[in-house]
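agent> fetching stored inputs for the heme C docking request
agent> found them:
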Amino acid sequence: MIRNIIAAIAVILAIWASVNMFNLDMEANKFQRISELIKSTAMEDKKLTNVQQPVVQQPVQTQEAAASKKNDEVAEKLKALREKAGNLAAFKTSPLYKKSCASCHGNIGEGIIGPKLLGDSKEKILAALQDFKSGKRKNYVMYGLLSNMTDQQLEDLANEISTFQQKLDEATK
Ligand code: HEC
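agent> prediction call returned; pasting tokens
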């Protein structure tokens, strides 16, 4: 119960933060601060008063290095899409994705304050969603979003997101 309330509050705060981000100049260091803030919402067993501690110190640097080349490529395509279609919002996604996910992961999963999902396989995405929902992977934001979704919805979302890369490729051919 308490868990759900905290999760709901975390989601609201995070969405509020992400909406505000859109209104501000998206400087890199602001990004950093917001994503750290979100990271700090990662669930830590029972120690809710301790959320300030660096809970999920993942090897960010190695991840970033590997991702950065791919990111350049994606950035190019996003730019091309913007020029071609006029607007990324023209990219058609389901109402559920648009409403629940796009604010943090981007209109086509390019990643904003949530990580980039573009290019991930259906299996990888679905596994992540299931783990967030079950609490195996601990994150209040994702848990709060997914806790009321059905398994079918998770599967549909994973399915949809896994097609984004192809859609982007086609749109920028
Ligand atoms: C309020 C911001 C926010 C919203 C809205 C949001 N996410 Fe997330 N998402 C995150 C953050 C932050 C993480 C990273 C959590 C972590 O690694 O502990 C994440 C992680 C993920 C991951 C794992 C990615 C990876 O590479 O490990 C998937 C998959 C995902 N989200 C899908 C979704 C889907 C589908 C929705 C819509 C139902 C959604 N997210 C909505 C913030 C958000």
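agent> quick read of the result: Residues 11, 14-15, 18, 38, 42, 56, 100-101, 103-105, 113-115, 117, 125, 128-129, 139, 141-142, 145, 157 surround heme C (CB under 6 Å).
agent> awaiting further instructions
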